[in-house]
């Protein structure tokens, strides 16, 4: 059973530089960024474990940018929201920026 110890809600921006990537690629970019940071992200149980990321906003169309995207990340250990924001912003490509992170 996964330990849902720490849930952090992030608000991020899909900027002009990456507005032509699809929603699935958009999700992969965030997952790869989290993996590169080494943060203790939680994974689902079962045959094909996935990162526990819950997207709170609708999928953006190709060619659409927004600064109102939200997601909830579940971590298996205690993490400060400032650390999540800081480390993810270093790993994500231009145009994909974490604006805020809160509990």
DSSP helix fraction: 25-40%
Number of helices: 2
Note the run of SSEs as H and E. EHEEHE
* Main β-sheet, spatial strand arrangement: 2-3-1-4
User: Care to count the β-strands?
Assistant: 4
- What would CATH call the class? Alpha Beta
Indicate the mean pLDDT: 91
The CATH architecture comes to 2-Layer Sandwich
Total domains = 1
From the alpha carbons, calculate the radius of gyration and give it in angstroms: 13 Å
Low-confidence stretches: none
The CATH homologous superfamily name equals Pseudouridine synthase I, catalytic domain, N-terminal subdomain
- Which of globular, elongated, flat, extended, rod-shaped describes the shape? globular
If you consult CATH, what is the topology? Alpha-Beta Plaits
Q: Name the structural class.
A: alpha+beta
Distance from first to last alpha carbon = 22 Å
Strand content: 25-35%
Describe the sheet with the most strands.
4 strands, antiparallel
Short structural description:
With 103 residues, the chain is of the alpha+beta class.
């Amino acid at each position: 059973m996964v330990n849902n110890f720490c849930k952090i809600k992030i608000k991020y921006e899909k900027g002009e530089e990456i507005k032509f990537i699809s929603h699935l690629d958009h999700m992969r970019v965030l997952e790869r960024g989290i993996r590169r940071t080494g943060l203790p992200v939680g994974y689902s149980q079962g045959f094909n474990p996935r990162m526990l990321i819950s997207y709170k906003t609708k999928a953006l169309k190709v060619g659409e940018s927004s600064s109102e995207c939200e997601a909830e990340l579940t971590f298996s250990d205690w993490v400060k929201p400032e650390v999540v924001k800081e480390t993810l912003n270093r790993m994500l490509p231009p145009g994909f920026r974490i604006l805020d992170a809160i509990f």
